[in-house]
Amino acid sequence: MTRKGRRAALVAGMVALAGSGVGVTLYALSGSVEFFMGPSEAMARGMPVGRPMRLGGLVETGSVTHAKDGTLDFKVTDGKAAVPVSFKGIPPDLFREGQGVVVEGAMGGAGTFRASIVLAKHDERYMPKDVADALKKQGRWNDGAAAPAAAIPAASPKP
């Protein structure tokens, strides 16, 4: 084998090894990927039972119920569709009706999303674009704008 042939074989072997490494890494990570959807998108696509995913939207007004066993039931909506959610645990302090939430979990067999984690958001800045657009059309969008400068007291200088 000539010098160029050995060099070409070495480069081809390194490319194959690197490609195998990338392939194995992507395969290992594919099981931990969680999809993020709004309720309308989730209903349109169909949520497969048991597949980990994230669901984001607003807590529907009047949908929150607390069971004696510590289960919290509510609906996540984007104004077009609502998905029933069941969560067993203590909700975050910011959790309330009309507030933005992201829930992580999987769809249960009874058509209820079984949440393992509930994340309450202080405003809707991090809402999926389609959910935010739907809320803006309905006039329910909270842009989270800061208070005007005149309303914020100035700090007194230190002596």
Q: Would you give an account of this structure?
A:
This protein is of the alpha+beta class and 159 residues long. It has a domain of 104 residues: Nucleic acid-binding proteins (OB fold (Dihydrolipoamide Acetyltransferase, E2P)). It contains 3 helices and 7 strands, in the order αβαββββββα. It has a 5-stranded mixed barrel with strand order 2-4-5-7-6.
What are the salient characteristics of this protein?
159 residues; alpha+beta; OB fold (Dihydrolipoamide Acetyltransferase, E2P); 5-stranded mixed beta barrel; 28% helix; disordered C terminus
Broad CATH class of the domain at 35-138: Mainly Beta
CATH topology of the domain at 35-138: OB fold (Dihydrolipoamide Acetyltransferase, E2P)
Total strands: 7
Main beta-sheet strand count, sense and barrel state: 5 strands, mixed, barrel
Q: Which strand order does the major sheet show?
A: 2-4-5-7-6
According to CATH, the homologous superfamily of the domain at 35-138 is: Nucleic acid-binding proteins
Radius of gyration: 24 Å
Derived structural class:
alpha+beta
Low-confidence stretches: 145-159
Strand content: 25-35%
Summarize the structure.
With 159 residues, the protein is of the alpha+beta class. It is 28% helix and 26% strand.
Give the secondary structure arrangement, pairings included.
Blueprint (H helix, E strand, L loop, with lengths): L2 H28 L4 E3 L1 H7 L7 E7 L5 E2 L4 E7 L4 E7 L11 E8 L5 E8 L8 H10 L21
Parallel strand pairs: 1-2, 5-7
Antiparallel strand pairs: 2-4, 2-6, 3-4, 4-5, 6-7
